[in-house]
Design goal:
GO terms for molecular function: isomerase activity. This is Peptidyl-prolyl cis-trans isomerase G. Keywords: Isomerase, Signal. By secondary structure, the chain is mainly α. 92% of the residues lie in helices and 0% in strands. The chain contains three helices and no strands. Helix 1 crosses helix 3. The longest helix has 82 residues. The radius of gyration is 40 Å and the shape is rod-shaped. It starts with a helix and ends with a helix.
Length: 112
């Protein structure tokens, strides 16, 4: 009879020891996962900033291309207006002596 309670006690001790190891492992895993989550949350604002910067750079490039397109259209408009004013010698002379932007500004002032 004596060996049976000793065996039960031994099994109980083994069960307690193994359960403690499992608890420690679970706690360690939970701590690691929570630290991973906190790191991801800290990286998330950084990633948002990078995405925002890329969007801004893309928009700046688009604005630059649009400005170049506008300048090209303004030069074409000047050429068209210059062709209309070829009947007078003064219009042709001013278009050769001033820059296209100056000519556009002068034309816009005359229209106002």
């Amino acid at each position: 009879m004596m060996p049976r309670p000793v065996l039960l006690l031994f099994l109980l001790v083994i069960l307690m020891i193994t359960s403690q190891f499992e608890w420690k492992q679970q706690i360690t895993n939970e701590l690691e996962s929570s630290s991973d989550i906190s790191q991801k949350q800290q990286q998330s604002p950084h990633m948002e900033e990078i995405v925002k910067e890329k969007i801004i750079l893309s928009q700046e490039k688009t604005i630059q291309r649009l400005n170049e397109f506008i300048q090209s259209l303004q030069q074409q408009l000047l050429l068209c207006r210059g062709n209309e004013n070829t009947t007078t010698g003064s219009a042709a002379a001013t278009s050769f002596t001033s820059s296209p932007l100056d000519e556009i500004q002068r034309q816009l002032m005359l229209e106002d």
